[in-house]
């Protein structure tokens, strides 16, 4: 029996995405995330567990999707994550922002950048 064709991700993973895991992983998991979203925050530890357990079998892609009207701190949090990415520290900032989701005011974001040596 012939295997079904692989589904294509639209848009495909590109240079603007933040990626963990091998390009040839069997599964690509894409999160459209908002650092202030309570549901994204609740999913964060579960996602970390899945990534630990599956290792190289999965590629994780993060794409920003801040819902500024509902989450007023989310756009600045996304900007800080991108500033961290420019210095090679997207994933440490990503983790800090979800771990400290209740404190995303501008002064908190500046403190996180300082904590990561940015």
Description:
By secondary structure, the chain is an alpha+beta fold. Helices cover 42% and strands 14% of the residues. It has four helices and three strands, in the order ββαβααα. The protein has helices at residues 38-54, 74-86, 90-99, 106-115, and strands spanning 18-20, 27-33, 58-64. It has a three-stranded mixed sheet, covered by helices on one side. α2 runs antiparallel to α3. The longest helix is centred in the middle third of the chain and has 17 residues, at 38-54. The N and C termini lie far apart (53 Å). The model has no long low-confidence stretch (mean pLDDT 94).
List keywords for this structure.
alpha+beta; 3-stranded mixed beta sheet; 42% helix
Layout of secondary structure:
Elements: E1 18-20, E2 27-33, H1 38-54, E3 58-64, H2 74-86, H3 90-99, H4 106-115
